[in-house]
């Protein structure tokens, strides 16, 4: 299975989408989503209770403001594009994976951004970027419906309190639960004392409260530029919610992003106008690592290096992985980061970073998967019944916690690898141990680098001063890092102290400093990971079994064909590598990688990842003559970070394409 974007598209974005409440159809319970939530909530409380019925799926025990209602795609522009047909069901589910949510003025209503992926049958991907916000409900019919739901909810709670052991018959159940848009008037009038006793903080009173409902604006794009798309959507939302009209009609900005802004060419950067300010993005050249625009620092902040490396190992061995978080963006960022770090290998199996609530049955699939499950934040790990847990990697992102499958082998040179990654993170002020609460707000030391501290003359530091100065000892964050340094053996004095491009006054950086630092950290970490595979598989071509017949015949009989001499390769490896490598060579991702090597006719015919990887292998073999008898487990650090980082810095200094 190959993954990639639709090569026919030359536009930055293919569709602009609006999802939300369809006032004509009203409040429709999202029965599948609600049923899953209901079962999860009741089976642990009641123990022996059986499967809930469809009626119970509406979950009347749940407060109406916390129930699940159907969202719909209200509009999308254009109607269709030939290279990327609009998938209304997929877009609707992934824009608002848990349907509509309601709030009152007492609740927080901050806009939330999250990316998502739609994978087509041929393995190609389309990316979505959604900004969900809350707008006031102006429909009196919807407000009345919500009020009716609260009356029914309070009546239900009152009856449960007074007759807990007397279940209603189905006829009575239906009588008490009419459709909220057509309620029987006799059931909307209940004794006032009962209601007042039962009302809670998240109640709704039509005469007192303002009702808000979630709404989503979304861009569907052929390539993943989450930072640029987030800015575009935030500026559009700002224009909608601002009392002052934007400089131009909103339609003109939407038209611009859909029809006038192109994809940046390979190796180039792109700058175009948003509603209130410029938006910048860049695309790597064909000689660089593939495009990756998600903040990888967040993954290490949330999980820590040790957990990230364990999760990475599980992904490489194609173990079932379930990510768990209250935040859709975290699910997507962790999933995309782990799969990006696999270069030159690609995840070949089920990949659903955000699993809509109505598709929870996918977790029963007896195949490798990497899926993300949204948490309500109300329960814990024990409330999830997961199949085949012996072969499952469960990652509770918000709580800095990971459950590993049995008999997980160690990644080769694990301790040295952790040390090298830690050095990169420390240079950017990110703790290798992680901090699960770090990315909630504005991180004070996220953009802090060792160079900033060493050359900060205002604080009495000279460039030659050691990093364990009085200032550092007084700083709690750095003190924690220093304690970690002592345990892991990382030397702060050995950190590469370079002049930061963003602080060089001669260079005019065309994007904000934090965004540049994100790109710099991303590429440094990715290069360290890529170097591990370049070192481990520097001689892989010698063990590829070329077919004796023509390649078309070979491929048609692929299941019976060997493509790699695994036994000879393993016999040439250092002993500590064998537990991991013996399992990794059996994975689908490794088989597919070798297949692509066999099927390419020349360098021009190679897939992008294979071409970049082979170039790096050739470079290593020229610089370091290797023979099978000289193979050792000596750890060799990455040496091409500076070159990769320079390419990024030059693109943001010289924006050479404008849309």
Descriptive tags:
single chain, alpha/beta, 7-stranded mixed β-sheet, guanine-nucleotide releasing factor
Coarse morphology: globular
Biggest β-sheet: count, sense, barrel? 7 strands, mixed
What share of residues are in beta strands? 5-15%
> Overall pLDDT, averaged?
76
> How many DSSP H or I helices?
21
Pfam family, one: dDENN
Organism: Coregonus suidteri
GO molecular function, one term: small GTPase binding
Domain UDENN: 53-607
Short account of what is shown:
One of its GO terms (biological process) is retrograde transport, endosome to Golgi. By secondary structure, the chain is α/β, with parallel strands linked by helices. Helix content is 37%, strand content 12%.
In words, what does this structure look like?
The chain has 659 residues and is an alpha/beta fold. Helix content is 37%, strand content 12%. It is globular. Mean pLDDT is 76; it is low at 1-7, 38-60, 165-201, 439-474 and 490-507. InterPro entries: cDENN_dom, dDENN_dom, DEN5A/B, DENN_C, Tripartite_DENN, uDENN_dom.
Secondary-structure blueprint:
Elements lengths: L3 E2 L9 E6 L10 H16 L25 E6 L10 H8 L6 E3 L7 E8 L4 E13 L3 H23 L7 H7 L15 H7 L12 E11 L4 H16 L8 H11 L8 E5 L4 E5 L13 H8 L1 H12 L3 E6 L2 H13 L9 E3 L16 E6 L17 E5 L4 E3 L10 H14 L22 H5 L15 H5 L1 H13 L24 H24 L14 H6 L9 H6 L6 H7 L3 H12 L8 H16 L17 H13 L6
Parallel strand pairs: 1-6, 10-12, 10-13, 11-12
Antiparallel strand pairs: 2-3, 2-7, 4-7, 5-6, 6-7, 8-9, 13-14
